[in-house]
Task: structure prediction
Amino acid sequence: TYVEQLGDLDAETGVVVFPFVADLFLVLAFDGSHTQHLATRETLARLDIPRDEALALARTNLDARLEEIEQRSLEEDTEPSRVAMLVTGWDLEASLLLLDDLWARIKLNARGEIVACAPARDVMLFADTADEGALVRMGEIADEVIDLFLPVMFFWVRRRRWLRFHAQADSANTNHACE
Result:
C-alpha cells in the first residue's frame, strides 16, 4: 500500500500518518504555493506542533484555505442531478472528506445517505442513495478519471462519520452494508 511505501513511520524522519476509515489513511503535508512537503515527526517537532494536535490543526487549516467550495452537477439532463462534484481549485478535493460541517450541510439536501468517492486527489464525487442509479453512475464517472496509482477505489458512506460503503445490486433492489 501507499502507506507501506512511506518507510518507517516511527522514525524521527517518518511521515505523519493517521488511520481514517477502513484501510484509508490521512497523510499530513504542507502545501506551499510552489511546493509540497510531507509532514514528518521531525518537522512537527521543529514547528512545536504535538502529533496529537496535528490532525485538528490540519482540519482547521484546510477549512480556512477553502473559502469557496463549489458544488457542480455532473448530469445536466437530470433534475436534480444524481451525481455531483465538489471543486476547491487547489487540488484538495480528496481532503474534503475531513470537513464534517461541509458534509452535514450536504446531507441537509439529501433524501437518503450521502456516498462519496475520491478517484483522484483533485476529484470528489458524491451521490444521494435515494436517487435511483446514482451510485452506478458515480462509479462510471469515477472510472473515467481514476488515478492510475490507486489499486482499487472505494465508496464511503456518511453516518456521523465515514464508513466504507458496499453496494450489491440485483435487478430488483440494492442492499447497503458497511464495515
Notes: The first helix runs from residue 2 to 5. Confidence is low (pLDDT under 50) at residues 169-179. The helical segments are 2-5, 41-46, 51-65, 100-108, 134-145. The CA atoms of residues 30 and 37 lie 5 Å apart.
